[in-house]
Write a structure and sequence with these properties.
Helix content is 78%, strand content 0%. With 282 residues, it is mainly alpha-helical. The chain has one domain. The two termini are 24 Å apart. 40% of the residues are buried.
Length: 282
């Protein structure tokens, strides 16, 4: 394996690990993280490439590297992030706030705006409005309780539909997967099962996984077409999605020792992601 291939493998797996870990944080979008780390376009094209002649092997290898990294991040980094949020919620929140904001300039540049007109302002506003409306959905809205046959069938149906919703959250930057799981009323059950490695409980969410896979295949196809045919509009709407997700991440005004620590961590998060995204898109 060439040096370039080794570097690409390590970077892809590392991105997957970071995205897998951060997706457990409500308000943090995996799509946003993929976008600001510079692998979003490649993820979208690789998912669609699985079904395209001549692209299957390359796409599958890339996705395997990413998924393996995500699995490691989900089971390892998620615990560290959970501990940080538990003991230092304000400081951790500001770091993520800065990290997400740090990727916004790169996405705006990706829009390749050639002429400033009304659409340049309308598209981000649409993205912001959509993200804010999604954040207003109450937690547990689609949760079904009960043990009867109808409740079980209803639960499977809701999980399938919920999987499609989760897929949209996975693919679209600015929408938090954890937030969607909260809406479905399964966030605490899934995170507890992952933390305890409870395989049987995780298996009970098989319909959710099936719906998610199907939704990803559909959503990525639409996104790739939109990026090719209407890149400026697509990236500006994504830019709006990410801006609209920032209030959801805002942990509140710092007090005490956080007055010193939070601005520093927010700046570090912003600078780190800004430099990474700048390097990847140089």
């Amino acid at each position: 394996m060439e040096k370039k291939q080794i570097k690409d493998t390590v970077y892809t797996a590392a991105c997957g690990a970071w995205i897998g870990g951060t997706m457990t944080v409500p308000g943090v979008s995996g799509g946003s993280m993929a976008m600001i780390l510079g692998i979003y376009d490649r993820l979208i094209s690789s998912v669609n490439g699985i079904f395209q002649k001549g692209k299957f092997k390359e796409s599958l290898f890339f996705l395997l590297k990413f998924v393996l990294g995500s699995g490691v991040g989900l089971f390892l980094f998620a615990k560290l992030i959970t501990l940080a949020l538990t003991h230092f919620p304000m400081a951790t929140g500001y770091f993520f706030l800065g990290a997400v904001a740090g990727g916004a300039p790169m996405i705006f540049r990706s829009a390749q705006i050639k002429k400033v007109g009304i659409p340049v302002f309308i598209y981000p506003i649409l993205g912001i409005a959509s993200a804010l409306l999604i954040s207003l959905i109450p937690e547990g809205l689609l949760e079904i309780n009960g043990t009867g046959t109808l409740a079980i069938i209803g639960g499977i149906f809701i999980q399938l539909i919920g999987g499609i919703v989760v897929a949209v959250a996975l693919v679209l930057p600015g929408i938090s997967v954890s937030q969607m799981l909260l809406v479905l009323g399964v966030y605490e059950k899934i995170t507890a099962a992952v933390d305890a490695l409870d395989i049987m409980t995780l298996f009970s969410f098989a319909p959710l996984v099936i719906g998610t896979v199907g939704g990803i295949l559909l959503t990525t196809n639409l996104i790739e077409k939109a990026m090719k045919k209407q890149p400026t509009a697509t990236y500006l709407i994504v830019f709006g999605f990410i801006l609209g997700s920032l209030p959801e991440l805002f942990p509140g005004l710092p007090t005490g020792w956080n007055l010193l620590v939070c601005p520093v961590l927010a700046a570090l998060g912003f600078i780190a992601v800004f430099m990474i995204s700048k390097k990847e898109n140089a």
